[in-house]
Design a protein that fits this description.
The chain is mainly beta and about 350 residues long. About 15% of the residues lie in helices and about 45% in strands. It has helices spanning about 5-15, 25-35, 115-145, and strands at about 20-25, 45-50, 100, 110, 145-150, 155-160, 165-170, 185-190, 195-200, 210-220, 225-240, 245-255, 260-280, 280-295, 300-315, 320-335, 340-350.
């Protein structure tokens, strides 16, 4: 079970760091070549590349978007391997009876003693740990990558690279439309000549692949009992536009009953997200999702369909990263006739 964690650790720490090389998007390169030479370097859109830094870069000019510090800490408690405690005394009424799982042909619910709850909790810990490591790697690379506007001197070398592996270096002021024929990539390096003067990051851009991780608390009903505990959402998906995206994910939710027994309820779902309102760096949105729920613990062994939705808020930190907070309500069928409701409140990070 620890092997996936080890693989993610190797992946995170083997990926490249942020480079001091910046790519000029194709449309921006064509725009620069059409401008008068003395106007080309006033405001140039650049995207920071990944890879090794060729040299120690100069200290960046403070960004118009502000600076921030991100720190992620975690604490995981695993079973200590101590001897199994003595059996508990039989619980008082009405803590007896049976409950048949529904939806996916679950099993019997006999409330006195735990069944698969501990296994589902351990699975949740492993999944969350893997997601946390992946999120940490993305925060310090994709999330912090500069994507915005700079001022370049007329003598700034522009490295034009063709598909055949050839490279032509042309000063920005001398760049001509004919130089762009066959060029697949154009880059500048921040420690060449007079360097780059950063003007500010571009606004948050959701278009493309997205990864989100958040954590918090929640609770759900279990017949006449209520369960309160920790909750987390792990999502991976794609935004075809700035305001709409589709995310596949898992919601991890677990807690304890009155007698201390562990109960877990995990949901696999497909979610649509929509951000119609923007107030500066604050983005207001909503989401809806559907999928299946898997519940276990204290005799539960069932699964069924689940549907829900809620509200989501994002505060963009960079062009590719935002803080996120969400409130969610989900209804799931854990028995043939009874639907169980769950509410979660979580905060986290979104990487685009």
């Amino acid at each position: 079970m620890l092997r996936p964690v080890a693989l993610v650790v190797i992946f995170v720490f083997s990926t490249g760091c942020l480079s001091n090389e910046y790519r000029i998007p194709r449309a921006e390169l064509q725009r620069l070549a059409s401008l008068p030479p003395d106007e080309r370097g006033q405001r140039v859109r650049l995207v920071q590349e990944m890879g090794e830094r060729r040299d120690t870069p100069p200290a960046p000019v403070p960004q118009a978007y502000g600076e921030f510090h991100v720190e992620i800490q975690g604490y995981i408690a695993l079973p200590s391997g101590r001897s199994r405690p003595a059996p508990r005394a039989a619980p008082a009424a009405p803590r007896t009876g049976s409950w048949r799982g529904g939806g996916g042909g679950g099993g019997n619910l006999t409330l006195p003693s735990g069944g698969s709850g501990e296994e589902l909790v351990v699975l949740a810990i492993v999944v969350f740990t893997v997601a946390l490591l992946a999120a940490t790697g993305l925060v310090v690379t994709e999330g912090m990558r500069f994507d915005g506007y700079t001022a370049l001197p007329p003598t700034q070398p522009v490295h034009l690279k063709t598909g055949g592996g050839q490279e032509l270096v042309v000063p920005l002021a001398s760049l001509a439309p004919a130089d762009l024929e066959g060029v697949e990539e154009a880059t500048v390096i921040e420690d060449e000549m007079d360097g780059l003067r950063f003007l500010g990051r571009a606004p948050l851009d959701r278009r493309g692949a997205a990864f989100k991780l958040d954590a918090g608390g929640g609770g759900f009903s279990l017949d006449q009992y209520s369960v309160v505990g920790l909750a987390s959402n792990i999502q991976l998906g794609f935004f075809p536009t700035q305001t709409f995206g589709v995310m596949a994910g898992v919601t991890l939710l677990g807690g304890t009953l009155e007698d201390g027994s562990t109960v877990a309820r995990h949901t696999l779902s497909l979610e649509a997200q929509f951000f119609p309102a923007h107030l500066g760096r604050l983005h207001l949105g909503a989401f809806g999702h559907g999928g299946v729920v898997i519940a276990g613990g204290s005799g539960i062994d069932g699964s069924g369909e689940a549907f829900g939705g809620g509200a989501i808020i994002e505060i963009d930190l960079t062009t590719r990263m935002a803080l996120t907070a969400r409130a969610d309500y989900t209804r799931a069928r854990l028995t043939p006739t009874v639907w169980s409701g769950a509410t979660t409140f979580t905060v986290g990070v979104a990487i685009y």
